[in-house]
């Protein structure tokens, strides 16, 4: 009896054992075959290093993409995914439940800290959207996630790697100076690590910010200030943008952000000295009189500004002339690139804490949008480019009595020398010198001149200042404007039709037209065109949440019923939507992104000029100044002609 049962057990287990053995052998065989393929995948990259000719970034990027594609297909990645799923199942790694708890905590914090009350129906609508979003998560394994991070870092360093590889190829052909230059390039990596560590460390302030009392805006403002200052130039630039449209923020936070528009920590004296040695081979004290390297007049995210005196020949006589010397900070390009990388790494790591496939397109689009956003800032890093823009606007300003641009005396990559505006002062300081009705009249006159300047730049010159926040505008005693810091300008040639279509489609609530415009403005219009219906549906939902209904036949009646509040909603949507298209999975071209940034900055500056003045007065002034622009432009030109004739007659006498 026992022997029969044993025989029966053996007969039942043999097929199962055979099946499992075959499975193990097939798995081992697949693993071996895939492993054998790896050297073949590495070979194209190795060939780039071996061959004699220089390589290009496209070649390196293509071969690295092919290599990583093979690595993703390796059985180890599949095993990693199964292992990761097991760890998430037993809560050893974040899973769907922990993701939902994290999102609930963040939503609770946002609701608690909102300066305006958020209705329950909006919160419920968000949870309905969130549940739909994460209904079918597709997890990545730890190996795949690490491969993603490695590829991201390599992609950031591709230009540097190409340069280093090509330098290595030329070692036998170059002299000791070139070899030394190669070593300097490798030092960039060490410097980048220091910058990246500092920036990632600065992001730690997010945790104490969320732990503060929701209504303790003073403490929150202090934390934000510390994070921005520690992170460096990229966050300072972003803070300046946020401050330009801070009307929805608590006053404590808005005030802290506005500080970054006017002044930030000055450059270190040794950095200033390094810039002068790099450009002139001399210390600033050997070139200027009264140049105090420890006391800049003003400091910004890009550099510091100093007041000094310089000998110049005027009317055949040498005199000491006060000048402004602007010095660029060291290593700014690396600061911006590392800042972009730090934010991308933070977004990439969020896939670990919130592992849902439907969040990936949103995060990827946000990451790409940050890179496009940073491109516009990087245009401000070379002072030679800034000098070209400034000289162009100096010539244009000669035709106006309302706005002026300081003359340039000298320009280089890191140092600018220009005219000192002895009668000009900051907007806030100029307004503070008036009281009562005089103060209100002065504010309105500044705003009138500001709007006139913007319209002249837009309509006459088709180009305008790319960052007109209050810190870049100075005011004379008669409310004349002096525009400084020309690191960025927006060229409107070829953009008018798209911008017009964008504004009209948002104001009219026409999502079909709006989707077409946004697709055309995007970095990948062909790919986004295939998603037209998806984008249109998302825009329908977005505008519906903003209570913007389509204007069809009864346009005037609809606008009349909505009143001023409805028009304000539509205008706010037009300002905000183009900067938040990553929510639709669309990445905007850098030009259009910075155009929206510039418009927001100008709109915020214009509103700040009416601080303490009624909105009714501001609206009336806006309508009047817009309608009278052609008349005011003619008057400005005629007044300049009269002054020219008067001067000529004086000389003749």
Automatic annotation (TrEMBL):
PROSITE patterns: PROTEIN_KINASE_DOM
Protein kinase domain: residues covered: 291-653
Top-level taxon of origin: Bacteria
Family: Belongs to the protein kinase superfamily. ADCK protein kinase family.
Protein name (database record): AarF/UbiB family protein
One of the Pfam families matching this protein, by short name: ABC1
Naturally occurring in which organism (per UniProt): Alkalimarinus alittae
InterPro entries with a match to the protein in the record: ABC1_dom (IPR004147), Kinase-like_dom_sf (IPR011009), Prot_kinase_dom (IPR000719), UbiB_kinase (IPR050154)
């Amino acid at each position: 009896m026992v022997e029969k049962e044993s025989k029966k057990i053996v007969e039942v287990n043999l097929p199962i054992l055979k099946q499992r053995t075959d499975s193990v052998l097939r798995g081992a065989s697949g693993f071996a075959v895939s492993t054998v393929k790896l050297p073949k995948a590495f070979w194209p990259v190795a060939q780039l290093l071996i061959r004699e000719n220089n390589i290009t970034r496209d070649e390196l990027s293509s071969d690295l993409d092919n290599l990583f594609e093979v690595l993703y297909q390796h059985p180890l990645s599949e095993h990693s995914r199964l292992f990761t799923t097991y760890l998430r199942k037993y809560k050893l790694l974040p899973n769907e439940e922990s993701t939902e708890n994290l999102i609930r905590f963040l939503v609770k914090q946002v609701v608690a800290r909102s300066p305006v009350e958020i209705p329950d129906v909006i919160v419920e609508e968000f949870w309905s959207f969130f549940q739909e979003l994460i209904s079918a998560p597709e997890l990545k394994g730890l190996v795949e996630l690490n491969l993603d991070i490695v590829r991201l870092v390599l992609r950031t360093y591709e230009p540097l790697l190409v340069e280093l590889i090509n330098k290595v190829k030329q070692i036998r052909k170059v002299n000791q100076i070139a070899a030394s230059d190669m070593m300097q390039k490798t030092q960039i990596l060490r410097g980048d690590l220091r910058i990246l560590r500092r920036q990632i460390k600065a992001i730690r302030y997010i945790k104490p910010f969320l732990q503060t009392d929701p209504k303790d805006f003073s403490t929150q403002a202090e934390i934000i200030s510390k994070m921005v200052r520690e992170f460096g130039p990229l966050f300072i630039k972003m803070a300046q943008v946020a401050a330009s449209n801070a009307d929805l923020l608590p006053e404590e936070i808005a005030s802290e952000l506005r500080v970054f528009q006017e002044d930030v920590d000055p450059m270190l004296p040794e950095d200033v000295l390094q810039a002068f040695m790099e450009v002139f081979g001399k210390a600033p004290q050997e070139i200027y009189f009264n140049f105090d390297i420890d006391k800049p007049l003003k400091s910004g995210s890009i550099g510091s500004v100093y007041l000094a005196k310089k000998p110049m020949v005027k009317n055949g006589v040498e005199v000491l002339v006060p000048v402004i010397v602007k010095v660029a900070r060291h290593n700014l390009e690396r600061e911006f690139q590392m800042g972009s990388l730090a934010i991308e790494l933070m977004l990439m790591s969020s896939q670990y804490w919130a592992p849902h496939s439907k969040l990936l397109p949103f995060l990827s689009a946000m990451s790409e949008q940050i890179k496009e956003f940073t491109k516009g800032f990087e245009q401000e890093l070379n002072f030679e480019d800034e000098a070209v823009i400034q000289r162009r606007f100096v010539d244009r300003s000669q035709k106006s009595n309302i706005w002026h641009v300081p003359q340039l005396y000298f320009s280089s990559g890191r140092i600018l020398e220009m005219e000192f505006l002895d009668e000009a002062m900051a907007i806030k300081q100029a307004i503070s010198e008036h009281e009562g009705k005089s103060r209100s009249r002065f504010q309105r006159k500044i705003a009138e001149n500001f709007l006139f300047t913007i319209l002249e730049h837009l309509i006459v010159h088709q180009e305008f200042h790319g960052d007109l926040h209050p810190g870049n505008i100075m005011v004379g005693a008669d409310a004349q404007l002096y525009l400084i810091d020309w690191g960025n300008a927006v060229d409107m040639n070829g953009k008018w039709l798209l911008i017009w279509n964008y504004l009209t489609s948002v104001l009219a609530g026409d999502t079909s037209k709006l989707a077409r415009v946004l697709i055309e403005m995007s970095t990948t219009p062909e790919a986004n065109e295939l998603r037209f219906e998806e984008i249109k549906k998302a825009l329908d939902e977005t505008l519906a949440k903003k209570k913007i209904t389509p204007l069809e036949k009864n346009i005037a009646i609809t606008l009349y019923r909505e009143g001023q509040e409805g028009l304000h909603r539509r205008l706010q949507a037009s300002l905000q939507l183009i900067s938040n298209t990553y929510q639709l999975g669309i990445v905007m071209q850098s030009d259009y992104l910075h155009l929206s940034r510039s418009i927001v900055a100008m709109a915020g500056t214009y509103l700040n000029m009416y601080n303490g003045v009624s909105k009714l007065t501001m609206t009336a002034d806006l309508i009047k100044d817009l309608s009278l622009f052609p008349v005011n432009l003619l008057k400005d030109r005629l007044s300049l002609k009269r002054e020219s004739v008067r001067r000529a007659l004086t000389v003749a006498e």
